[in-house]
Amino acid sequence: MRTLLLQIMVTLDGYAAGPDGALDWIEVDDPGLDAYLAELLGGVDAQIFGRTSYELLAGYWPDAQRNPATPGDALLAPLVNELPKLVLSHRPDLELPWEPARRIGADLPGEVTALKNTPGKPVVVFAGVRTAQEFLRLEAVDELRLLVFPVLLGAGRRLFDEVAPRQLRLVDAVPFPKSGVVLQIYRRNQ
C-alpha cells in the first residue's frame, strides 16, 4: 500500500498560516532545509495541493526554474515542476496550467483509497490549512511531517483546529541549526 505523507510548515505556537493567510514567516535561507525538501521530492510519485496553494505556487515555481532567486530555488524548482500535481477542488472546470496536473475531489475518500492502493512511491500533500485538515479528518495521513519554525505568530490559522484527537508516534526529529527549523516526523499508531 502506498504511503500518504502530509508535509506542512507550522510555527512554534501551531499556526500554519498567519492572519489573512500570510506565509512570510517561512522564508528562510537554509541549505540543509533545502536539501531535505529535495530529498523528500525525489522520493515521492506525486504532490497533492489544494486549489489555492496550487494557484499560488503555479505563479512562482515555473519562473523560479527559469530565474532562480536563491540556490534553494535552483535545487527545488525542477523537482517541484516535474512531479505530477493532484489538485483538490470541487470545480470540474478548473484550469490547471502548471503541468503535469489533474483535479481530484469529486469523491475524495474513494480517490484517496484508490491512490493509496496503487503501487508506487509515497505521495505527499503540500497544502494549505483547509486541505491538510481535510486529509487529517479523513484519517488518510500515514506520516505527518511538521517543519516547525522558531516563530510565535499569536494569531492565524491553526493546523489542528477541527481535527479529531489521535495518538501519533514520533519517529524522527531533525534540527536545521542555520534557520532554527526542526523537522518532526510522526506516524499513526496502528
SSE layout and pairing:
Elements: E1 4-11, E2 15-17, H1 31-42, E3 46-50, H2 51-58, H3 61-66, H4 71-82, E4 85-88, E5 101-104, H5 108-116, E6 123-126, H6 129-137, E7 143-149, E8 157-158, E9 168-176, E10 181-188
Parallel strand pairs: 1-6, 1-7, 3-4, 3-6, 4-5
Antiparallel strand pairs: 2-8, 7-10, 9-10
Description:
The protein is an alpha/beta fold and 190 residues long. Helix content is 29%, strand content 28%. The chain has six helices and ten strands, in the order ββαβαααββαβαββββ. The chain has helices spanning 31-42, 51-58, 61-66, 71-82, 108-116, 129-137, and strands at residues 4-11, 15-17, 46-50, 85-88, 101-104, 123-126, 143-149, 157-158, 168-176, 181-188. The chain has an eight-stranded mixed sheet, with helices on both faces. A hairpin with a 4-residue loop joins strand 9 and strand 10. Helix 1 runs parallel beside helix 4 (71-82). The longest helix is centred in the N-terminal third of the chain and has 12 residues, at 31-42. The radius of gyration is 16 Å and the shape is globular. It starts with a strand and ends with a strand.
List how many beta strands DSSP finds: 10
Question: What would you call the shape?
Answer: globular
Task: Provide mean pLDDT, rounded.
Answer: 94
Relative helix content: 25-40%
- Poorly predicted segments: none
CA distance, first residue to last residue = 14 Å
Rg is 16 Å
What share of residues are in beta strands?
Answer: 25-35%
Q: What structural class do helix, strand and pairing data support?
A: alpha/beta
How would you write the strand order of the largest sheet? 5-4-3-6-1-7-10-9
> How many strands, which pairing sense, and closed or not: the largest β-sheet?
8 strands, mixed
Please tally the helical runs, counting DSSP H or I stretches of 4 or more residues. 6
| H/E series | EEHEHHHEEHEHEEEE
